[in-house]
Amino acid sequence: xxxxxxxxxxxxxxxxxxxxxxxxxxxxxxxxxxxxxxxxxxxxxxxxxxxxxxxxxxxxxxxxxxxxxxxxxxxxxxxxxxxxxxxxxxxxxxxxxxxxxxxxxxxxxxxxxxxxxxxxxxxxxxxxxxxxxxxxxxxxxxxxxxxxxxxxxxxxxxxxxxxxxxxxxxxxxxxxxxxxxxxxxxxxxxxxxxxxxxxxxxxxxxxxxxxxxxxxxxxxxxxxxxxxxxxxxxxxxxxxxxxxxxxxxxxxxxxxxxxxxxxxxxxxxxxxxxxxxxxxxxxxxxxxxxxxxxxxxxxxxxxxxxxxxxxxxxxxxxxxxxxxxxxxxxxxxxxxxxxxxxxxxxxxxxxxxxxxxxxxxxxxxxxxxxxxxxxxxxxxxxxxxxxxxxxxxxxxxxxxxxxxxxxxxxxxxxxxxxxxxxxxxxxxxxxxxxxxxxxxxxxxxxxxxxxxxxxxxxxx
Length: 460
Ligand code: NAP
Description:
Elements: E1 3-7, E2 12-17, H1 22-39, H2 44-60, H3 62-73, H4 77-101, E3 105-107, E4 113-120, E5 123-127, H5 135-146, E6 150-154, H6 160-172, E7 180-182, H7 187-195, E8 199-205, H8 208-220, E9 225-228, E10 233-237, H9 243-255, E11 265-271, H10 272-287, H11 307-322, E12 326-329, E13 344-347, H12 354-357, E14 364-370, H13 373-381, E15 385-386, E16 389-392, H14 396-405, E17 412-413, E18 428-429, E19 432-433, H15 438-441, E20 446-453
Parallel strand pairs: 5-6, 5-8, 6-7, 8-9, 10-11, 10-16, 11-14, 13-14, 16-17
Antiparallel strand pairs: 1-2, 3-4, 4-20, 9-19, 12-13, 15-18
Helix pairs in contact: 2-4, 3-4, 4-5, 9-10
Bound molecules: NADP nicotinamide-adenine-dinucleotide phosphate.
NADP nicotinamide-adenine-dinucleotide phosphate (NAP) binds next to helix 7 and helix 8.
């Protein structure tokens, strides 16, 4: 397996990269482990100088970084710029807040005094996906580097140029050698990295299949791991929803990043009384999107990340149809060069249909018509995933009640699953475990140590 950058707008190969030799991998791990021995003793203020500088560099280089991303995985250029700025904000957020988040916590035992304190644990191995090539990296780099850990990261095989550009930010920010290391490695080498005693934790964002493999490996080694996996978020529309407002979020929620977002709205669950109106507006809105060059700011439908992603999605749609789903619109590739998928809506997806439990990682929406609020919640919960979800209603108290009953890691009222630097992000069930971002994201790979003082005599 090699690393190759291919432009999905036209299928042209941009650059290929050799995977690391075992010798080079060993050298990089040695440098990372040595770096930890000094980085762990730096003050938060000293670490913040480097992390904040990387944030500034990201912001300054927004155009080139965004351009690389658009060429490499087809993200529309406006969204690409937004992702770079957001990634910069995440780094700046942890540079500013890490010390507060990890400050010692006084406890109140009945005898004596006690506190919890946090210390870094070592070299953390990140495995990251292509769909947000910088944001996913910033989500691990900001918190874990500020906590005093160091990072080695395997990025997805199709975004090597983004991976290398992100690594370079750290060198340019004055980071010591080994603080952040990009590893162009195979899955088999990745297994050996997890086994390596110098690696003290594993953070994966990716598919359920990768989660099962990597979490198992980390488990065999008794290493802590965090798993940010797939999702099939419910988008619940209640009878009292403002349909115009709801429709804008429905389109954005399904189509943002070409539909290739873990927490995208994937299952549209609409109560009977507004179902027809919703579906006809949704068709019109999705039908208005125009395929074009993702570097052109006017383009409203970009390509998928790769030809193989498109082929896989087309196959999933075929399977859904073969098992009785009805095609409302789309279902095929766009008739042009490049890896473009037509915006697609499926209905009549029965529980026996494999599609019912699948994640469609692209512009394919499943539409369900339900009797009422209770039926909407029951259907939302009938999923192996549990990442995010949303509910649309004019009655916010009702929205909160529904949100509490949906079994996911995140719920959003009158908007869709999205992240902010200060809000913990993550799921339950097959969507994984652990949290990234917010104050919880920095707690995943630290030693929380109890220290107690009590003037006690030992029992005889
Ligand atoms: P993927 O195939 O699982 O790949 C993700 C990363 O894992 C890539 O770096 C990949 O490397 C690596 N990988 C996969 N299997 C591996 C193995 N056995 N050993 C070592 N590394 C392995 O997922 P994807 O298709 O790129 O990304 C889409 C998935 O990620 C979707 O399911 C999406 O929902 C999920 N996701 C979740 C979140 C979240 O926060 N919950 C965020 C974004 C995406 P290669 O590229 O070399 O195979």
